[in-house]
Amino acid sequence: MHPTLAADLARLPELLQTARDFAARELSRVDERPVATAEEAPGPERLPADGVGAQGALDRFAQRWEPGFSGSAGPRYLGFVTGGATPAALTGDWLTGAYDQNGSSGGGSTSDALERETVGWLRELFGLGEAHRGAFVSGATMSNTVGLAIAREWLGERLGVSVSRAGAAALGPVTVLSGSPHSSITKALSVLGIGRDRLRPVPLLGGEREAVDVARLAEELEALDGRPAIVVANAGTVNTVDFDDLRAIAALKERYDFWLHVDAAFGAFAALSPAHASLVDGFDAADSICVDLHKWLNVPYDAAVQFTRRQDLQVRVFHNESPYLGLPTGTPDFLHLTPENSRRLRALATWFSLTAYGREGHAEIVERCAALARRLGEGISAVPGLRLLAPVHLNVVCFTLADRPTAERLAAVARAVADSGEAFLTPTVLHGTPALRAAFSNWRTTEEDTDRVRDALARAVRGLPAPESV
Question: Domain 25-44+53-86+358-470 - what CATH class?
Answer without folding.
Answer: alpha beta
